[in-house]
Amino acid sequence: MTHRAAVLGSPVAHSLSPVLHRAAYAELGLQDWTYDAYDVDAAALPGFLDGLGDEWAGLSLTMPLKTAVLPLLDRRSDLARDVGAVNTVLLGPDGRSGENTDVPGLVAALREHGVGRPHRAWVLGGGATATSALAALRELGVADPVVVVRDAARAQPLLAAAARLGVRPVLRPWSAAALADAGEGDLVVATTPRGGTDALAADLPARVAATLFDVVYDPWPTPLARAWAAAGGAVLGGLDLLVHQAVLQVALMTRRRVDEPALVAVLRAAGEAALRRH
Asked: Which of 69, 94, 183, 224 sits a CA distance of 20 to 30 A from 215?
């Protein structure tokens, strides 16, 4: 029987997930597995899920579905419950199970690049990816990160997730001054969608000390990442996160043990090739 998986979101045409998951299936010899992309918004999600057959093994979720899916699940992992966001749905005879591979993906990507225990960490943005960043920072020992948001009134879901995680974020208003202070820390995680930090790039100080982890992967480098590197800071890109969390998704969906470092290398090469073609 063919096993099916897919990424859902809106928009989703730009997603690299099909490239990465198909590369993983090829590497693992899973010739009876398929992975596609479907443009599905929050309103269409219940109907899409109800129409899935027994051949479906799992789904990757991107914006705006990571929170919209929560009431449609039969169960959630403790991490997904605490973060309040699900990026992975496992499908089977026992129903729909929600997981979050963004958090361990963030941690793995940072550790791969030598960022193990930052003392002063900042998060740019207040959405679902920002809450995953808070959970990842907790795993790295940061209990009081600074979170820079455009609208503090819209940060209530993030603050609620922080309380469940036992993290005490300090909110700062979105400004060039906040970014300048962030650059003097150890780590800055930019969690906004493409274009979200572009206006800040021109106001970056001449020198920065922190490592920037920008979760955008297309276009790459972002204006902020380019300016950050020019100012002497280390930079990680969204492909690092996408690859690490995809490896975890493949293991969950296929229910196979995988050689994670080897598969990370395969998926990174596939993603880089796809971005060059794009």
From this structure: 69
Task: Compute the distance between CA of residue 210 and CA of residue 84 in angstroms, rounded to an integer.
Answer: 28
Burial (CB < 10 A; 0-12, 13-18, 19+), residue 179, is buried
Q: Is the pTM of this model over 0.90?
A: yes
- Whether residue 186 is predicted with pLDDT greater than 90 in this model: the reply is yes
| CA gap 67, 266 in Å, rounded | 30
Q: In this structure, what are the phi and psi dihedrals at residue 37, rounded to the nearest 5 degrees?
A: -120, 135
Please tell me whether residue 53 adopts helix, strand or coil conformation: coil
Give me the mean pLDDT over the 129-140 stretch: 96
The catalytic residue among 4, 22, 66, 268 is 66
